[in-house]
Amino acid sequence: MSLSNNITAFLNFVAFMCSIPIIAAGTWLASKPDNECIHWLRWPVVFMGLAVMLVSLAGFVGAYWKKEGLLGVYLVCMAILIILLLVLLVLAFVVTRPSGAYSVPGRGYSEYRLAGFSSWLRNHITSSDNWGKIRACLADSNVCPKLNNEFITADQFFAAHLSPIQSGCCKPPTICGYQYMNPTVWNNPTNTIAEPDCSIWNNDPNQLCYNCDACKAGLLGNIRKEWRKVNVILIITVVVLIWVYLIACCAFRNAQTEQLFRRYKQGWA
After folding, report:
1. Which residue in 9, 97, 101, 19 sits closest to 54, CA to CA?
2. What pLDDT, on the 0 to 100 scale, is given for residue 129?
3. How far apart are CA 110 and CA 211, in angstroms?
4. pLDDT at 113
5. Domain tally, the chain
6. N or C end of the chain, less CB within 10 A?
7. Which helix or strand (DSSP H or E) is residue 181 part of?
8. CA–CA separation, 19 and 225 (whole Å)
9. What confidence score (pLDDT) does residue 269 get?
10. CA–CA dist 184, 166 (Å, integer)
11. DSSP tag of 114
């Protein structure tokens, strides 16, 4: 009768331990320069990890000590948590499915088009209401200045695998025909009418291409890349939690049966 309770206690202990890498992944996500500039994207995974930790702990205590009331609360909370995780996963997959990336001949890095990303991301992150603060935050970060210490020659830079945000914000689009001086200084464009970003580029370290659509696309490219990695951890977590939840339902039913059996014996006594 107590077999499923013991299994539930063990699996919830495993889920409790799994919450640690979830929290670590959320902390890593929050520490990335792009997410530091988008506050509402920084902590959802950390909060989910903490919720998994607390709910798993409640499930462990309820199953191990056969606390029917605690198991009931645990089941409700676990169902809500699974639903929230599924919603987060579906949203993350839908909005990060388009990449907006395209390859550039002779370059180790890709470049990015804003139109290639989901409209939800564009509307919630790169809208005129939000971009001013994000742009100022990126300009204050070390995303672009550190490139000057990493690359000396043009060949080194062109062969580099830049992050999306470095490719979009720290240099002008290749189609503009700018001449490389260093990673953040480019002169003598040959095709300034190729696209609007060509005339927006500025060698001022506080300007660069932070006002470009390419920079907005690079930011979305970074977010997409990071969230796709975190999604793997979330998928594993959801699968584990669903199995734990199913076994916990058996444990709850067993706890009720045991309580009825105890009352039955007391009645005969």
Report:
1. 19
2. 83
3. 19
4. 94
5. 1
6. C
7. strand 179-182
8. 22
9. 47
10. 10
11. G
- In whole angstroms, give the CA distance from residue 148 to residue 166: 12
Alpha-helical segments (H) within the chain? 3-31, 33-36, 44-64, 68-96, 119-125, 128-140, 147-150, 154-158, 164-169, 197-200, 213-268
Is position 34 within any domain? yes
189 is a domain residue: no
pLDDT of residue 1: 46
Residue type at position 225: K
Is residue 209 in some structural domain?
no
Phi, psi for 195 (deg, rounded to 5): -160, 160
Q: What is the span of the domain harbouring residue 254?
A: 1-145+220-268
Residue with tokens 């935050």, as numbered in its chain: 137
**211 domain-assigned:** no
Q: How far apart are CA 41 and CA 34, in angstroms?
A: 10
Q: Which residue has the tokens 């999604």?
A: 231
**Residues across the chain:** 269
Burial class (CB in 10 A: 0-12, 13-18, 19+), 57: middle
| Threshold 0.90, pTM exceeds | no
**Can you tell me the distance from the alpha carbon of 106 to that of 41, in angstroms, rounded to the nearest whole number?**
34
**Quick one: DSSP state of residue 204?**
S
Q: Which residues of the chain have pLDDT under 50?
A: 1, 269
